[in-house]
Amino acid sequence: MTTQNIRAAQREQTRRTLLHESRRLFASRGYADVGLSEIVRAAGVTKGALYHHFDSKTELFRAVLEQVQHEVGERVAATADAEDDPWRQLVAGCQAFLAASADPDVQQIMLIDGPAVLGWTEWRALDEAASARHLAEALTELMAAGVIVEQPVAPLTRLLSGAMNEAALWLASTADPGDLADTQAALSRLLDSLRRTSGST
Question: Do 131 and 97 form a contact (C-beta atoms < 8 A)?
Fold first, then answer.
């Protein structure tokens, strides 16, 4: 391995460490209560090393948020792909999103601090790229197959996405262990109401 390759590997390792430690701190305490000095101390690097990778604390948080969103998206996709029927894929994917979003660390970073730190417009754009687009594609496919009544996809996508995000936030505030199962059951009933029945137009 050349000196250049070694340095590149070291830089990448530093970046991974910064993401890991900042994610741990943001998840446990929230963005506002974590300072850069604490992050670099936990990562064992200098502030100069941090600024080599990220222009600011906000940029570091954005990278952490994108990492969390990507992981949630992969979990949802893997769960959906395990089903061979498009309708069951939609239901399984939505249920997997709700289950993943019920994780307190995910809630803190993705649903609580995400909109607060980046602003609603940017957060929505990231959420759109991470999950809403896939939901829209699934709904479009089901409408084309006649499983769901034909209707505008964009508002339906945002209604379902917003409902699931709000449910995940509510789950963060409740201590009842049965609430996740109850919420998933309610989500199943909501999704079932979209299915075409005989005589639907």
Answer: yes
Q: Which long-range contacts (CB under 8 A, 24 or more apart) does 166-175 make?
A: 167/98, 168/98, 168/101, 168/102, 168/106, 168/107, 168/111, 169/107, 169/111, 169/112, 171/101, 171/102, 171/107, 172/102, 172/104, 172/107, 172/108, 172/111, 172/112
Rg value, the chain, Cα: 20
Give tens-digit pLDDT for 98-157: 999 888 899 999 989 999 999 989 998 888 888 888 899 999 999 999 999 999 999 999
pTM score? 0.88
H or E element in which residue 192 lies: helix 179-192
Cα separation, 97 vs 183, whole angstroms: 12
Whole-number Å distance between alpha carbons of 145 and 82: 20
Q: Which residue do the tokens 């954005």 mark?
A: 62
